[in-house]
Design brief:
- This protein has helices at residues 2-22, 85-90, and strands spanning 26-30, 38-43, 47-53, 56-63, 68-76, 80-81, 104-115, 118-128, 131-146, 153-164, 180-190.
- The chain is mostly beta strands and 197 residues long.
Length: 197
Amino acid sequence: MNRLAMLIATALAATFATGAAQAAPETYTIDNSHTYPQFTYTHLGFSRQTQKFDKTSGTVTLDRAAKTGAVDVVIDATSVNTGFALFNQHIQEPDYFDTAKYPTITFKSSKMNFNGDEPASLTGDLTIKGVTKPVTLAITHFKCMPHPMRKVPACGANATATVKRSDFNMGKNVPYVGDEVTLNFAIEAAKLPAAAQ
């Protein structure tokens, strides 16, 4: 009887240990070559213009078993790409991003919200031009799988939110140029070996 009890206890311990291992959070490094934050706004009522940033870094931490996660993103504001060098320079001046004083834009999540087994939204702090505001990003697409070429675990997602640029001391030319700005994030991240991080 004691032997049976020991076997059961050992099996339970192994089960819990396996469960704990499976629930361990995993950290993915953002792939800058496939991560392009974009922002869209109205221009004089004629059209909706979309611009992007070319340099992004950071990490995504995910524990799908525990339904928790975190995202820490740093965008190089000097990498803003409008397609025109003169506009790139103009949008970095003090009335807008003021990249000489504030060269980065950051988003640091405080909570990842799940719908069933999939992340549905991220709540966190967005900092632009030294101003920090709470923002919730709705996750519109999410997928994790082994990367077919890099042969490592990888995840990708699309997320969106709407903010007012005037909230970040960037209100010049409102309302002729729209105050409401739609943020769209396309992010890919991979779980890299320690030596490669």
